[in-house]
Write a structure and sequence with these properties.
Blueprint: H1 2-64, H2 71-79, H3 91-113, H4 115-118, H5 121-155, H6 161-166
């Protein structure tokens, strides 16, 4: 009987130790992913700010060539709030990213459609910049999404998911 209790006690100690190791690893991973996602937020925000700046320059070029522009699109561009894309998670950030893409596509279409503008070297530079920004953005989105998946996995991991619910940690959305 004493041997059974000794084995039972040692088993309980080992299981508790293993559980604590999982909890510590889980907390380390969640803290790491949170830090990484914060860096991604700032990187993506900077990229989108750069994209908006290039679109602003494109509008100036279009105005220089006296190209007629849609007032609604000009208003959307001038009212675009970069604070909406400081953090990539949430519906507001998704809507802001979609709006910036729509604005960009419109002004690029107008510029490409106008022969004077499309033959201007300044347009070529701006178009190249915007295309490169889009490539860099897509690369960062892939990294962001991979880290979001890791973060979401670790905050839903069994040993500690209840702690994260109490701390109001929520899963994050990937960028599509």
């Amino acid at each position: 009987m004493e041997l059974f209790l000794l084995i039972l006690r040692n088993t309980a100690i080992v299981l508790t130790g293993v559980y604590l190791v999982f909890v510590v690893l889980d907390v380390i991973f969640v803290v790491s992913f949170s830090s990484i996602l914060a860096h991604h937020d700032s990187d993506l925000s900077l990229i989108l700010t750069n994209k908006k700046d290039n679109i602003d320059k494109l509008v100036l070029l279009l105005n220089k060539h006296n190209v007629k522009l849609d007032k609604k699109k000009l208003e959307e561009l001038s009212n675009f709030d970069l604070k909406a894309v400081e953090h990539q998670d949430g519906q507001e950030a998704k809507s802001a990213r979609e709006l910036l893409t729509s604005i960009s596509e419109y002004f690029l279409y107008v510029a490409r459609d106008n022969e004077k503008v499309s033959n201007d070297n300044e347009f070529f530079e701006l178009e190249t910049n915007i295309d490169e920004i889009e490539k860099i953005y897509r690369q960062h989105v892939v990294l962001y999404n991979a880290d979001v998946l890791g973060y979401n996995f670790w905050i839903s991991f069994f040993p500690t998911r209840f702690i994260y619910k109490i701390l109001k940690r929520k899963t994050k959305d990937i960028i599509s």
